[in-house]
Backbone:
């Protein structure tokens, strides 16, 4: 969805105009048990790409080999089966703060009878946030950057994706000893 607004910090106001927003739904697990959803191993990995003509969502449940994808077009959504949703890591970076090796450049591919997506995402800035919960601490790292690629329809029409806003996020849970 589109986003706009402002926030103030230390007397300075920052304004967001014509931005993109995503409503997260990670807390939908059994009794809002976020640590069990994230897992203590590889956690989750997802990516969004935004442009006026197309939005792309990619999700992978770490360590499971399961992935899913969805393309949002004006007035329509296309879901992609896990066996036809793939990603390839092209570059990584080890964060000196968290010691986590993070994907910074990747290729995403999705195929269905409704079309095919080819996308390359390259990120260069990062953020880190987390939540203290009763059973665990969750760590989330986000990376912003750009994506390029294309979505091809079966009839030959193509939607180019050129230097579009992209975001990658990875999260995992660390169980607390006292829990």
Residues:
């Amino acid at each position: 969805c589109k986003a706009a607004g402002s926030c103030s910090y230390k007397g300075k106001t920052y304004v967001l105009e014509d931005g993109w927003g995503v409503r997260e739904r990670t807390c939908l697990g059994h009794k809002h048990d976020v640590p069990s959803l994230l897992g203590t191993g590889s956690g989750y990995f997802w990516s969004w790409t935004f442009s006026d003509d197309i939005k792309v969502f990619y999700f992978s449940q770490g360590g499971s080999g399961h992935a899913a994808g969805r393309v949002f077009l004006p007035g329509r959504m296309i879901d992609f089966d896990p066996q036809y949703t793939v990603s390839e890591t092209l570059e990584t970076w080890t964060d000196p703060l968290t010691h986590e090796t993070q994907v910074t450049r990747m290729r995403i591919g999705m195929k269905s009878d409704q079309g095919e997506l080819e996308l390359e995402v390259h990120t260069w800035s990062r953020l880190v946030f987390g939540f203290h919960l009763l059973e665990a601490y969750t760590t989330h790292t986000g990376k912003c950057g750009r994506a390029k690629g294309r979505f091809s329809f079966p009839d030959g029409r193509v939607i180019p994706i050129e230097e579009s806003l992209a975001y990658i996020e990875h999260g995992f849970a660390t169980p607390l000893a006292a829990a």
